[in-house]
Amino acid sequence: MQAREDLLSLDGTGIGILEHSHRGKAFLKVYEQTVALCRELGNIPDDYEVLFLQGGASSQFFMIPMSFLTPETTADYWVTGAWSEKAVEECKRFGIAHTACTGKESNYSQIPTAANYSDKPVYVHYTSNNTIFGTQFRSEPEIPADAFLVCDASSDIFSRPIDVKKHGIIYAGAQKNLGPSGVTLVIIRKDLVERAAKDLPTMLQYRTHAKNESMYNTPPTFGIYIMGQVFQWIKDQGGLAALAKHNEEKAGRLYKYLETSRLFRATASPDSRSQMNVTFVTGNEDLDKKFIAKATQAGLDGLKGHRSVGGMRASIYNAFPTAGVDRLVEVMREFEAATK
Amino acid sequence: MQAREDLLSLDGTGIGILEHSHRGKAFLKVYEQTVALCRELGNIPDDYEVLFLQGGASSQFFMIPMSFLTPETTADYWVTGAWSEKAVEECKRFGIAHTACTGKESNYSQIPTAANYSDKPVYVHYTSNNTIFGTQFRSEPEIPADAFLVCDASSDIFSRPIDVKKHGIIYAGAQKNLGPSGVTLVIIRKDLVERAAKDLPTMLQYRTHAKNESMYNTPPTFGIYIMGQVFQWIKDQGGLAALAKHNEEKAGRLYKYLETSRLFRATASPDSRSQMNVTFVTGNEDLDKKFIAKATQAGLDGLKGHRSVGGMRASIYNAFPTAGVDRLVEVMREFEAATK
C-alpha cells in the first residue's frame, strides 16, 4: 500500500510523510489534492469551506452551539441515539436545546418520521447514521425556512451521495469511513463561517481555520494524507453513487438473510435500517453470547453489540468487503442449523 | 522501521494499527506502553496525569485560562517570543493576563533574568524553548508560593530531563520531538484536574480525559502509537540525561563554529541559546539568501529563518543527527571561505 512507501519517502522527496513540515511544498500538495478530491467526490459547491479540524465529532457538539447560539436562542435536535443525546447536552450550555423528536421510546430502533419544531430554531441538527442502534436517515429532514441544517455524518459520510446544498454544516470524525482517528472533516457554508461568534478562543472559531486553510496551527498531517488516499480509493470505486449501490447490495445480503432466519432478527425498523451498522439479536442473551464466541472463533471479530443494547452489531463501513458479509451469513446459517 | 510493519499488522494481530478499534486489546496495550514509557522517561510522579489530547499547544493556550481563571483573577506570563505572545492573547479572554517580563525590546534574543510578578497570580506560564528566536530557558523560573507553574514545552520536551514536580502543567504539541502532529501531551497535577472549572464543554474539561484515560472520544491512535515508538527510541538512547548530553554536544558544535566565524554570528544571547533551534545571520540579507540557496543545493533544506526575524535557523530536534550538524558547519565554512 502507498502509505507504507510514503512513510519512508513522500512523493520521491526522500523524506517521510511524518517528517515533512506542514508548511513545505510536499505536504501542501497532499493537502490540496485531499481538498480537491473531497470537493469532487462530495460535489461540494464553492460557497462551502472544507476544513480539517481536530477533537472529533465530540468537539463539534459544543463548537456549533458555542458559535451560533445565545442563551435566548434555540436549536432543534432530532434525537435518534446516543450521539445525538450527547450533542443535545453540549448545546444546553450555550442556548435552548429543543428536542424536535426522539426515538427513545422505541429504544431508538426507528428514525422518527416527523418533528415538532420550535418557533424559530437557529439550526436543526441530526445524526445521519446511528452506530449503536443500527439506524440511518433515508434522506435529509425537512426544516423551517430560516434555520440551517447541521448533520453529524461521522459514521456514514461518503458512503453514499450527500446533498451538501441542503446543509449549513456537515461534520464527521474521520475514523469510520475516511481513514484515521484524529481528523474531523467539517464542510461549512461560508456565510456561517462569517456569522459565527467572534469572541471565542482563536482555535474555536471556524474563521481561524477557514482563513488559514486549516493550517493556523500544525494540522494532523498524517491523518489528512491518509484521508486523501481514502478519497482516491473511493474515486477508483466509481465515486459515491457507485459506492452507495455497493453498500446497499452488501448490507442487503445480511438483511435478506435476517428476514428469513428463524433464529436471528434485525432490531431496527425496516424503514430505518443502516447500511453501515447492522444490529441483530436471537432474543436470548445466552444464545447471543454463544454466537459471538462462535463467530470470533471463525475469525469474525467485534460482533458484540454496544453494551447499552446488547445483541450483535456488524459494522460494515465502506472498506469492509462483501466477502466478509457472505462469510458472516455463512457462520450465522451454520449456527442456526446447529441450534434447535 | 517498526511503524511500516505495524501499518499492516500490529503486534501479530493481522490488523493494521490504523484499523484497530481504540477500545480493542491491541490498541489498549499500545496506549498503556506509551503512558508507562512516558512516566518512566519523564520521571513523572503518581500524582500527575498523562493525557493525550488534540488541538495542539494552541488549544492549551485557551484551555488553561478557561479552566483556572475568572475575570477577576490574574495569571502571569514570561513573554519570550511569538508563542508566549499568542498564549497571553488567549488568556485575556478569561482573566487578567499580566506580563511578568518580556524580551520584546531585544527582539526576544534573550530570556529575561527576572520577573515582576503580580500580587497573587493563579499560575505562571513560560515557553521553555522559543523556536523562532532560538532561545531556551536554562531552568524553570522561580515563582510565588501560591501559584502553580505552567510550561509550554512543545519544542523541547524530552530533549533533556524536566523537573515535573516544579510544575502544575506541562504541555507539548508532539510534532517537534515526540512524533507526529495531531497529538498533544499534557502532564497535569491531579489536584488541578479536580480544581478546574466544571461548567465547560465536556471535551474542554481535563477531568473528562483524565477519567477516561484519554479515550472519552476516539483518540488519535496512530499518533499515540508513533509517540510510543519515539519514547522507546529515547529509552534506547539512554533516556533523557543521555539525550541532553548528546543534544548539548550536537548544538555545541554549531555554536562553537559561530563563535569563531568572521561571517556568521548567532543571534541569541550566550546565556539563552537553544539546543533545539540555532538562529544565526551574516548581517547582510542578500548574503543570507545566497547562503540559504547554497545550503539547499547541498541538501540542507529548511534553513530559512522565520519571516518575522529573517536570517537562518537550524532546527536540530532530538531526531536530527550530529552528522547533519557537521555537514552544515562544513557548508558554512565553505561559504565563508568563498565570501570575501
Structural class of chain A: alpha/beta
> Could you tell me how far the N terminus lies from the C terminus of chain A, measured between alpha carbons in angstroms?
46 Å
Helix amount of chain A:
25-40%
| CATH C-level label of the largest domain in chain A | Alpha Beta
CATH fold name of the largest domain in chain A, please? Answer: Aspartate Aminotransferase, domain 2
What coarse outline of chain A follows from CA principal-axis ratios? globular
Chain oligomer state: homodimer
Q: Would you report the number of β strands of chain A?
A: 12
Most extensive interface, chain pair and sizes: A-B, 45 and 45 residues
Name the CATH homologous superfamily of the largest domain in chain A.
Type I PLP-dependent aspartate aminotransferase-like (Major domain)
Q: What is the tally of helical segments of chain A?
A: 10
Number of separate domains of chain A: 2
Brief characterization of the structure:
Chain A has 340 residues and is of the alpha/beta class. Chain A has 10 helices and 12 strands. Chain A has 2 domains: 2-236, Type I PLP-dependent aspartate aminotransferase-like (Major domain) (Aspartate Aminotransferase, domain 2, 3-Layer(aba) Sandwich); 240-338, Aspartate Aminotransferase, domain 1 (Alpha-Beta Complex), CATH 3.90.1150.10.
